[in-house]
Inverse folding.
């Protein structure tokens, strides 16, 4: 028998709340109804919060704007930590010259752009510039011709010993109630199998996502892991990653994990959240 | 130090020769020069032969025609055993009604067609006919829109507990000296990961390919496995599969396995051919 | 809602019945109660039957004796097809000299023994004989010191490019109602990961198991695949393998697949049996 | 052609040096000859250093003592960051009651012990205490009966939805020039496959190892990632992990990666170190 906790009572025990985005704050139809109450409550209680999301399709500024357009003004760019930001940090630290080839939309490429590097869609890679390519990044599942550009990517990786960065570890994402779309992480995993290489993946459940957010806070004030709770709808990313990093975790049943499946999947996976709540909405 | 055998002397010891197609009889440029001598020799010696190929893009009749157009008339349709034929046999035996959805060209679909079944490209699957789909087949990497149709395929598999058949186990195939193309088997493996299902794969190294050819012969005359030698250029498909089925095997160095790499790869994989020859050409 | 068929009515439609052993004919407590009726019925109806089992721990003669001791006399050695027999056939056809090192009991080694080959437990492999080892076989999970001998096996495989044969593809087998034991196939899979090699695996769902049994029958009389039905308790081995080979299949709920889980697992895996029956017992 | 850098000139460019232990500071015979010079140089230059090691078999204090016994006094316990310390941190933060079952030696268990928790070897788990087990930890490949205790572990995980922690991600470790031993990470991977669960793994290349060391330094003084270089002998752990975290990296050829293989393996894996040096010895 599933033991549901009251979301408000649970977060009252923590100073900082980390939220997953999809399935927690929003779904395929838009914002989760009532979620703005949660952010009013957090502000009233002076609790800090962050959105920790496997999303490299847009910059934090653009992601924040999409919340604003939907009517949620509390989510500002400085509160968003995305797997795309980690990909950008990697390029900044480790790739100092040459061309960064990418699969994704121009939007996704724009924010990984940098003064020292030149980004170029895989469709523009040819004999004249292939030798200058110093990294390949999977950013988004849209913005390119899968047939042509995935074949080009395979041959690029075979010819050049460059790092391949996957800025989103998800295999698929929901687009309607019953349908999903293949995500950049799913495409990357096919290419990985074909070329027999190990790519560099950024995104939950990897610790680096949580560390990035944790560090942002610690730059301003002292904090310990016990002060933070991670809220997510997916056992294998949000809860496993949060647990492994040492955070307490809340599984919400408004997204990937359905109320009727939660106990079965927790028992089957051994991934046990600290709490289970209906949703992240403070009534 | 690599110990090369003379191809003619080796096949002299066997009654029947099985050939892989790509990298043995032909390559990205066309027929392997001199390969017609081999078939003249086989006929002069009254030796039987078969082409055993991971190819579901065309029917045996069409495959044979492509050899004829290149000037090799010895390869007739009844000598070709393809993974596509196994997919067709599966559909004939196991799928008795409904629509067989496919990913591939109309050509590839044509020969799996059957009086009782109706084939339909994945692009034509929609709300009106999805409930009648009784199987999905990966036939070829061409003939469809990867972005649209692979996403449709993912959702079809999620919604319907149908068998998914992969008629080609190869992950990629060579298109020029240094470039490859992603094959139907590589695409299928991505979809398999995303939907978390086990597909039904036909093709070398699976025993069913060798058994199909072996049975064709036994229908006409008694034979034992020791009478047959399998010739191939790829350790993981031709040689592993031939060995496992109990055939002797010849690795030729005219395709996937380069002369300089053969020993390293044999030692690294533990897949040991009975013989190694430069090529399948009888001088 | 699960649609159960009557076992007797289903097998009435076929000339030959293939049975899995564990979970169908016997379980951890001994014979499935009433299963002797089934074999009386088969004999009365003049239907042929075979036991097709992933078991390399004993010879068919010894396996048959264990049925006799339990009171089931219909199961004779010539009706048993085991993954161990395929391992033996492989060694007979492909390994012509040297030492066959094995992991398993002396019993399991005894029946793969052969006049030309010498079997030796891995524990007896040392500097003096390692260069004569021409194959390694995983036969059973018992009969050796896991710590010492698995480490010896890893180093043997690293040093010598020999074929490694796994004579049982199962990862675990039930020993009491709620407990399992790690099987030879599970151990082999660990060693495979550590040494980065592809082993040669014999056992369901691989087609070679079904072909071996199918060939035994065809040596005596003509038969087609539609005359045969495969009865098993496990979707991923018995049903997937039977389906792929082109047989009709019966899932019984007396073993691995529980009545409450059957539909969920069929939908989740896409492995659909032709029929579902409570058990293989003819009332 | 491989471009070797001089180790001293390279580390002169960094404030802090992270070292892998095995293959860099020591090998199966003991300390790498001359490695004490390196630590004298580091101290003379006032450079900070840390040992970052996948080792959960002993506490940092015991690991440091083993260096002292070999004559290297510079390596003190506070300079060692081990995967075992991360396992301990996880237990401290996330497991608040019950029994922590472990596979390993009493020594390995001793240092994960804690006032609130009770550690018990898997061999002591039985019907009387299984319901109190709140976590299982793989610490070492020694100290237990593989056959009995691994089977007990499989059944413990099947019965209880507890987190399973793997305190060492390595699959094997060298014991002589040509021989390896299966490591705790290799055993854990077999169990993971058999039970179909995702375990919590601590060790390189996972970022959490690097973050733990990075945090130790930042507690005392400001630092950025560009100030640190990671020295290791293994592309898939030290170099991949260091690169991904954003550190510069030095591959040394005194361990896992042989001088003749380095370029081939870098090209095959796409894991490119910032520098390659013969060894970590300052001449």
């Amino acid at each position: 028998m599933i033991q549901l906790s009251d979301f408000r009572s649970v977060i009252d025990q923590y100073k900082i709340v980390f939220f997953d985005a999809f399935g927690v704050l929003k779904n395929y139809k838009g914002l989760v109804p009532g979620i703005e109450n949660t952010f009013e409550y957090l502000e009233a209680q002076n609790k800090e919060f962050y959105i920790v999301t496997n999303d490299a399709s847009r910059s934090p500024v653009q992601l924040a704007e999409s919340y604003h357009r939907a009517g949620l003004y509390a989510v500002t760019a400085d509160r968003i930590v995305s797997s795309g930001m980690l990909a950008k940090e990697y390029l900044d630290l480790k790739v100092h010259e040459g061309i960064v080839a990418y699969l994704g939309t121009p939007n996704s490429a724009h924010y990984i752009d940098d003064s020292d590097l030149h980004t170029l869609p895989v469709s523009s890679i040819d004999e004249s510039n292939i030798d200058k390519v110093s990294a390949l990044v999977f950013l988004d599942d849209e913005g390119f011709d899968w047939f042509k550009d995935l074949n080009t990517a395979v041959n690029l990786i075979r010819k050049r010993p460059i790092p391949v960065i996957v800025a989103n570890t998800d295999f698929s994402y929901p687009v309607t109630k019953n349908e999903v779309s293949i995500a950049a992480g799913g495409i990357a995993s096919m290419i990985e199998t074909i070329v027999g290489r190990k790519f560099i993946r950024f995104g939950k459940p990897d610790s680096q996502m949580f560390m990035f957010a944790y560090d942002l806070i610690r730059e301003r004030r002292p904090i310990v892991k016990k002060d933070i709770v991670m809220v997510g709808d997916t056992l294998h990313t949000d809860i496993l990653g949060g647990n492994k990093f040492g955070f307490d975790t809340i599984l919400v049943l408004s997204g990937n994990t359905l109320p009727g499946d939660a106990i079965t999947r927790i028992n089957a996976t051994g991934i046990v959240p600290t709490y289970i709540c209906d949703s992240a909405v403070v009534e």
Summary: Residues 7-54+224-277 of chain D form a domain with the Rossmann fold fold (CATH 3.40.50.1000). Chain D touches chain C through 23 residues (CB under 8 Å). Chain D has two domains: 7-54+224-277, 84-201.
